[in-house]
Amino acid sequence: MNTDARPLAGKVALVAGGTRGGGRGIAVELGAAGATVYVTGRSSTGGRSDLDRPETIEQTAEKVTAAGGLGIPVRTDHSRPDEVRALVERIAAEQDGRLDVLVNSVWGGDPLTDWEHPLWEQDLDTGLRLLRQAVETHVITSRFALPLMVARKSGLVVEVTDGNTARYRGTFFYDLAKSAVIRLAVSQAAELRPHGVAAVAITPGFLRSEALLEHFGVTEANWRDGAAQDPNFAHSETPAYLGRAVAALAADPDVMAKTGRALATWCLYEEYGFTDADGTQPDFAAHWAENLQEEYGPLGDPL
After folding, report:
1. What contacts 190, CB < 8 A, 6 or more positions away?
2. pTM (predicted TM-score)
3. What are the catalytic residues?
4. In this structure, how many other beta carbons lie within 10 angstroms of the beta carbon of residue 158?
């Protein structure tokens, strides 16, 4: 039974790329809202992905359940259509054909991103691998998951990106991947609209992921110490903030009004009233306008 505290009770979600970072934050907050969440990725207790990080889909699933939902980990390489097809068939069999929320959060492109060189000086194989990892995986996942939503004539697709504008993101392949993910939301929205299914892109602000905490040599307990190295870090946000934005969208009966748009945590918190884990409401766009715009130009106009 849906309640104000558990508005997604009875709903089924798939968070592709839910091992860590924004994907983990989304999975956990969907669980906190009462959803059953299939958490997928390549890092599991059975072995790490090529990123060689310690976070696993099992850990995320446990956090989903602890938050009040039901977390189900399924190791899946989303670049392999056969594995994604098997995943969706399992969801359909276990949930009577139901899938209410699809979150395409697969990334894994950090070690593939070259921030130092222009396109003509970059390694082509590495750049194309980034695109396959960050864009093709989303296409493959939607290809097999969308029929479940179309059949029920309801649902929400969320494409996780970086930035909700057409502003250049600093390096060619990274910019192309993050821009393409926004376009995936636009294209899916156009095709899904007649079937009552919404599709949006969403970006966090300065996301305080596990990897970023490590980069600054801090933990979530003392994360503010990282601002000594980068003052902008003081305006970062946890993955829970992004997760609560997605949970709010998934619970919104009028979400179709937003289909095809590129959204951001710094806009949605004003509409839905959610907070970050510490009760604050970070607004990276406001911080940018006040402190960074003069040097770097406008953050950009929302798409």
Report:
1. 260
2. 0.96
3. 174
4. 25
Walk along the chain (303 residues) in steps of 10 and give the mean pLDDT of each run: 82 97 98 98 88 92 98 98 98 98 96 98 98 98 98 98 93 98 98 98 96 94 94 96 98 98 97 97 95 86 71
Instruction: Provide the H-helix boundaries in 168-209.
Output: 172-192
- Residue 242 in contact with residue 266, Cβ under 8 Å? no
How many secondary structure helices (H) and strands (E) does the chain include?
Answer: 11, 7
As a whole number of angstroms, the distance between CA 122 and CA 204 comes to 27
d(CA 63, CA 42): 18
Please name the residues in contact with 284: beta carbons below 8 A apart, sequence gap of 6 or more. 205, 206, 235, 237, 265, 266
- Give the Cα separation of 1 and 283 in Å (integer): 33
| Residue 300 token pair | 């950009």
Cα–Cα distance, 202 to 159 (Å, whole number): 6
Q: Taking each helix axis from N to C terminus, what angle separates 284-291 and 265-272, rounded to the nearest 10 degrees?
A: 120
3-state helix, strand, coil in the chain (%, to 5): 50, 15, 35
Distance between CA atoms of residues 113 and 5, nearest Å: 40
Closest C-alpha to 38, from 105, 106, 102, 107: 102
Residues across the chain: 303
